[in-house]
């Protein structure tokens, strides 16, 4: 049995039409039929019911299709992992992060990795949490930095740090001196993350406002934390952002009030593939974890 037999079988199983499957495979129909017959003879099982009107999978064929699909998925993962092992000294290493956690730590990480692995091309991508998880499962990134819990059997997650929240406002338009004055913001315009882009984070912001006794009047939305802070700076509203943003933003035109009374935090986590045991990944994770100590 050869891989081509299995590829031909999957094409026919998907199309349930030998003519269409042959066109998809760029071969003529007679050779395709012969390959399927060879496969059936080898495994000693009839895989298709053929007549003049239609082609159907037998029960054995349905089972075989499921197993062959799983086989090709495992083969693809093995191929990707082999490629990553081969690229341990060269190639690309892709790191994704969400906009709300970018800091000098990530820049220092790239410098550290370049010193250790000078022939590797390190790439940074700003990507939402949901898309990071999909990209990591598909082998499109090697390391992700996210701000929300995940559930995936293929991904290993390690807590980097816990982050609190702070109100951010324009000092020239809003007078805010302490956390006790937060309830007075109930009539102000708010700038939030888009609900569809970051649903978990959006819900947390609503919980925070509810704790202080009001429902925010959300007028402007953005998918990028830097855009949110810029909108606040331009006087278009106020917002609630992770306290990490306040620590990394020295702009004198905007102010931050940390919300210490409410016991709400977000976990910032490092995510990697459970199958990834490369030295580069280990070095990257260890470097970032050292910063959180």
From TrEMBL:
SUPFAM superfamilies: Periplasmic binding protein-like II, Winged helix' DNA-binding domain. One of its GO terms (cellular component) is protein-DNA complex. Transmembrane segments: none annotated. Keywords: DNA-binding, Transcription, Transcription regulation. Signal peptide: none annotated. InterPro entries: LysR_HTH_N, LysR_subst-bd, WH-like_DNA-bd_sf, WH_DNA-bd_sf. Residues 1-58 form the HTH lysR-type domain. It comes from the Bacteria. The keyword ATP-binding does not apply. Pfam families: HTH_1, LysR_substrate. GO terms for molecular function: DNA binding; DNA-binding transcription factor activity. Belongs to the LysR transcriptional regulatory family. This is LysR family transcriptional regulator. It comes from Flavobacterium pectinovorum.
């Amino acid at each position: 049995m050869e891989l081509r037999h299995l590829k031909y079988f999957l094409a026919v199983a998907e199309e349930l039409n030998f003519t269409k499957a042959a066109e998809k495979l760029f071969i003529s129909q007679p050779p395709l039929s012969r390959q399927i017959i060879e496969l059936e003879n080898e495994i000693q099982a009839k895989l298709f019911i053929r007549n003049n009107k239609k082609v159907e999978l037998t029960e054995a064929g349905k089972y075989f299709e499921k197993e062959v699909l799983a086989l090709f998925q495992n083969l693809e993962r093995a191929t990707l992992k082999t490629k990553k092992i081969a690229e341990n000294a060269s190639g690309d290493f892709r790191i994704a992060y969400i906009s709300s956690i970018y800091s000098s730590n990530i820049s220092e990480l790239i410098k550290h990795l370049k010193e250790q692995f000078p022939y590797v091309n390190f790439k940074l991508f700003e990507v939402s949490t949901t898309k990071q998880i999909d990209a990591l499962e598909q082998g499109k990134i090697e390391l992700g930095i996210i701000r929300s819990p995940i559930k995936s059997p293929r991904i290993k997650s390690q807590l980097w740090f816990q982050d609190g929240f702070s109100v951010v406002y324009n000092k020239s338009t809003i007078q805010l001196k302490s956390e006790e004055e937060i309830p007075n913001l109930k009539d102000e315009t708010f700038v939030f993350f888009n609900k569809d882009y970051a649903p978990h984070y959006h819900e947390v912001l609503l919980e925070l406002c509810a704790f202080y006794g009001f429902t925010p009047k959300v007028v402007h939305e953005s998918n990028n934390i830097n855009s949110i802070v810029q909108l606040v700076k331009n006087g278009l509203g106020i917002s609630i952002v992770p306290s990490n943003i306040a620590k990394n933003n020295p702009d004198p035109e905007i102010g931050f009030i940390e919300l210490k009374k409410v016991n709400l935090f977000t976990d910032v986590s490092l995510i990697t593939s459970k199958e990834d045991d490369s030295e580069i990944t280990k070095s990257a994770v260890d470097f970032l974890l050292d910063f959180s100590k």
